[in-house]
C-alpha cells in the first residue's frame, strides 16, 4: 500500500478511535502499529518498530524534567503556598474595585511560576479565592470565571508542563521555551488585570461593596509568608536562565526546595509526603504513556512520508508563516472544544512542526502559539477542562457549569486577542530569548 495513503488513513483512524472513547495513547500506538504493518507488510517488523520507538521516547535525560516539576507543583499546592499568596495579595487590593479578582489573577501568575499545571491552579483557587470574592459581594459567575480564566496562566508562565511536552515532541530547548513564555504570560496577566479593573468601574454592581472587612485568615496571615513563593520561583527560573543548572536539574532543585519549605512550615508530614509521591507517580505515568504513544505516532508518520508531502503542499500554496499560524491556531482552538490540551499537541505537532521549519517559523514562537491556542480550549464548551475542575470543586456550593462557562467567556476572548498579538508580533515571544 502507498505509504502516504497509509499516513492519511492513519489520521482518520486516530480521529475515529479517539472520538469513540479510546485512550489517546492507545489510539496513537495502535494505529501506528497497523500503519507500519500496512507499509512494510511485516507484522514482526512493525512490532519491533513500535518497541524501539517506545524505548527511545522516554530514555532521554530531558524527560526527567516532567516528574520533577510535577513533584514541585504538588508539594507547593500541598504546602498551601497558593492560599498564602492569595491572602496576602488580596489584603492589599481589597479596596480596589474588582480588587479580589485582580488579586486572584496576580496570585495565579505567581503560583504558575512554581507549578506549571493549570488544573492545580484551578483546584487551589476555587477553594481559596471564590468563597472570599462571593463573601465580598462579587457576582458568583464572575468569581468562578476569574478563577477558571486565570488558571490557564499555569501552562503559559514558565515552568509549564505543556512547554516541556512541546520540547520533547520537537526536540527543542526547554530553557528557550520557558524564556519565550514570559512575554505572553505577562501580557495575558496584564490584559486580565485591565479587564477586571475596567469592569469594576463600569459594572460596580458585579463586585459588591468596596468596604469589606478583612477575613480572619487575612488578619492572621503574616506578609512574610509570600517570601517562600518568591524565593522558590527565583531559584528555579533564575537558575535556568543564568545557566546555573539545566531545566531537569532545576526541577530537582525546585522539588527538593518545595518539600523542605513545606516540612519547615510543618504543613507537609509523612502522610502528605506519601500522598504527593503517589500523585506524582500517577501524573508522570499518564504523561509518560502519552509521550510514548506520540513518539510512535510521529515516527510512523515520518516513515510514511506524509509530513514531507504536506509540507511541500503547504509551501506550494503560497501560504506565509502568519497565515499558517492563524490557520493552525483556529484548528487547535476548535479541537480544544472536545479534546484535552496534551492530546491535541500529541496529534497535531508532529504533523505541523516540519511545515513550520520549512516556512522559517521559529520553534519557540510556534511553541507558544500552540500552547496558547490549546489553552483556550480549557475555557470553551463542551469540554473546558478548567471549567469542569472549578465546577466539580465547588459543586457543594451549587455552582453550575453554565455559570462557570459564562464567567470564563470574556477570559477566553482575551486569550484569543493575546494569541492574535503573539502571532502578528513574534517579538513578544522572541525578544527575551534573544532571537
Automatic annotation (TrEMBL):
GO annotation, cellular component aspect: plasma membrane
Pfam assignment, any one: DctM
Coiled coil: none
Domain TRAP C4-dicarboxylate transport system permease DctM subunit as annotated: residue spans: 11-428
Transmembrane intervals: 7-28, 34-54, 61-81, 101-130, 142-169, 181-202, 223-244, 250-269, 281-303, 323-353, 365-389, 409-433
Major location (coarse): membrane
Sorted UniProt keywords: Cell inner membrane, Cell membrane, Membrane, Transmembrane, Transmembrane helix, Transport
Keyword DNA repair: no
InterPro entries in the cross-refs: DctM (IPR010656), TRAP_DctM (IPR004681)
Localization in the cell: Cell inner membrane
Membrane topology summary: Multi-pass membrane protein
One MF term in the entry's GO annotations: transmembrane transporter activity
Subunit structure: The complex comprises the extracytoplasmic solute receptor protein and the two transmembrane proteins.
Stated role: Part of the tripartite ATP-independent periplasmic (TRAP) transport system.
Entry's family note: Belongs to the TRAP transporter large permease family.
Annotated protein name in UniProt: TRAP transporter large permease protein
Species annotation: Roseibium aggregatum
Amino acid at each position: 500500500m502507498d505509504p502516504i495513503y497509509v499516513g492519511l488513513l492513519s489520521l482518520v483512524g486516530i480521529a475515529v478511535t479517539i472520538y469513540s472513547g479510546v485512550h489517546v495513547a492507545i489510539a496513537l500506538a495502535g494505529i501506528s502499529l497497523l500503519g507500519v504493518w500496512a507499509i512494510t507488510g511485516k507484522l514482526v517488523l512493525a512490532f519491533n518498530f513500535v518497541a524501539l520507538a517506545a524505548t527511545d521516547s522516554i530514555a532521554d535525560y530531558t524527560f526527567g524534567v516532567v516528574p520533577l516539576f510535577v513533584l514541585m507543583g504538588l508539594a507547593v499546592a500541598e504546602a498551601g503556598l497558593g492560599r498564602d499568596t492569595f491572602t496576602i495579595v488580596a489584603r492589599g487590593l481589597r479596596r480596589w474595585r474588582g480588587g479580589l479578582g485582580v488579586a486572584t489573577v496576580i496570585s495565579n501568575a505567581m503560583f504558575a511560576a512554581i507549578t506549571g499545571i493549570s488544573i492545580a491552579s484551578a483546584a487551589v483557587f476555587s477553594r481559596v479565592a471564590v468563597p472570599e470574592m462571593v463573601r465580598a459581594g462579587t457576582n458568583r459567575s464572575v468569581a468562578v470565571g476569574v478563577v477558571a480564566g486565570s488558571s490557564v496562566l499555569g501552562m503559559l508562565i514558565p515552568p509549564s508542563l505543556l512547554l516541556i511536552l512541546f520540547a520533547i515532541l520537537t526536540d527543542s530547548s526547554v530553557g528557550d521555551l520557558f524564556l519565550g513564555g514570559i512575554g505572553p504570560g505577562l501580557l495575558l496577566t496584564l490584559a486580565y488585570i485591565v479587564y477586571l479593573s475596567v469592569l469594576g468601574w463600569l459594572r460596580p454592581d458585579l463586585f459588591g461593596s468596596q468596604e469589606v472587612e478583612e477575613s480572619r485568615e487575612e488578619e492572621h496571615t503574616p506578609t512574610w509568608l509570600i517570601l517562600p513563593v518568591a524565593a522558590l520561583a527565583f531559584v528555579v527560573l533564575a537558575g535556568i536562565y543564568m545557566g546555573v543548572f539545566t531545566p531537569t536539574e532545576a526541577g530537582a532543585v525546585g522539588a527538593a526546595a518545595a518539600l523542605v519549605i513545606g516540612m519547615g512550615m510543618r504543613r507537609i508530614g509523612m502522610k502528605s509526603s506519601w500522598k504527593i509521591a503517589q500523585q506524582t507517580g500517577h501524573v508522570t505515568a499518564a504523561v509518560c504513556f502519552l509521550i510514548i504513544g506520540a513518539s510512535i505516532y510521529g515516527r510512523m508518520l515520518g516513515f510514511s512520508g506524509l509530513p514531507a508531502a504536506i509540507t511541500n503542499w503547504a509551501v506550494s500554496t503560497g501560504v506565509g508563516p502568519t497565515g499558517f499560524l492563524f490557520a493552525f491556531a483556529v484548528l487547535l482552538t476548535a479541537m480544544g472544544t472536545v479534546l484535552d490540551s496534551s492530546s491535541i499537541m500529541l496529534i497535531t505537532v508532529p504533523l505541523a512542526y516540519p511545515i513550520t521549519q520549512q516556512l522559517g517559523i521559529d520553534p519557540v514562537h510556534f511553541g507558544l502559539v500552540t500552547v496558547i491556542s490549546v489553552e483556550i480550549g480549557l475555557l470553551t464548551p463542551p469540554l473546558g477542562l478548567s471549567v469542569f475542575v472549578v465546577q466539580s470543586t465547588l459543586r457543594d456550593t451549587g455552582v453550575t457549569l453554565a455559570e462557570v462557562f459564562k464567567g470564563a467567556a470574556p477570559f477566553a476572548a482575551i486569550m484569543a486577542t493575546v494569541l492574535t498579538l503573539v502571532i502578528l508580533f513574534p517579538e513578544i515571544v522572541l525578544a527575551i530569548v534573544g532571537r
